[in-house]
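dumping these here so i dont lose them again. two proteins, back to back, each one seq then structure tokens. dont judge the mess
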Amino acid sequence: ERKNAELFFCAVEFIQQYHGAHSGRLQGILNPAQAETCEPSLLRESVAAARELDVPIHIHAGGNFREFLEILNTYRKPVVEYLAATGILGPRTTLGHMAITGGHSRVDYPLGDELKLLAESGATVGHCPHKCAKMAFAMESFDQYLDAGVNIGMGTDTYPLDIVAEMRYASLISRLVDRNAAGARPADVFNAATIGGAKALGRDDLGRLAPGAKADLVIINLRTTRYGPIRDPIKALVDGGCGRDVDTVMVDGKILVQGGRTVRIDEAEVYANARQVTQRYWSHVPT
């Protein structure tokens, strides 16, 4: 608990020093790591600090079954109700995963007002379907959360960090869960990956092409034989796209990726450095 407090004050000091730097590109966010590893007092302090600093909050929650059981046994309520009681739910809070609630097929506990609480609070679910699938479970389901009025954004949380592919996972896995081939429509998961995430950040100037929005553009090449003739580009992207299809990325009018390659860093050098560090780590594992 003392270590958490030290990290909390370090985070606050970092945000006070650097929030808004580089023409606003660097934005602070408080991240009490996981619902089951943070005391309620730390969550309440995070809420107070976020209000004072005017920054969002991110926390991992609803991402594993051990967490669900620990919180249920300790506080006698499911994860969402526990978080609501701490005050951490709100329109500037993103819950990483939040795929395990009461009523989940792997949980012997009924669904209560959890989705209603999420929707009414305005909190965002950061949906990472690929990571959930790697851990052998799924959100049940994308459409159920959406129909309840919950704001959904898309995340990665594991390699490959491919937000385009994550949209396909979100759609296909939800259809499997619901046994509904018409569910989790491409337009809905595309909106989650764009304006859903922007809403989580409180940024109406992101996630859309519109007057007054930032000049943040992603150009994706769909004119390949892998896609075939296209009638609906959003459906084609969600059904068959991947990050390698991205040709150009512009942020606030400045090109960062062109021809599928970053223009400001040497990718080979970055990879070589990362490889060297990880090999050094792996060599120490036996000891």
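---- next one ----
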Amino acid sequence: MMQKAIDLYFALVDALKAEDEERTRALIAPDFVMHEDESMPYGGEYRGPDGFFALIAKVWGTWGGSHFEPLYQIADPAGTKVCAVVRFR
């Protein structure tokens, strides 16, 4: 059975907050794709664990560190997608 997206999201948040790269990488599928709006300084498409860490480096660099706070999350009823609002402080 596939893990619910919201559970995966919170596991990822926990791994990132713990600065546990090994655990974070284990949560990201090789076919993972993240799309960031082109209007952002880190806009573009990021693929797989390496792409995810490239994105994280750019986001942390833009916002001045890894201090983030998950504010809101919503998942579809099937549990396959999640949308999250995060505040960097």
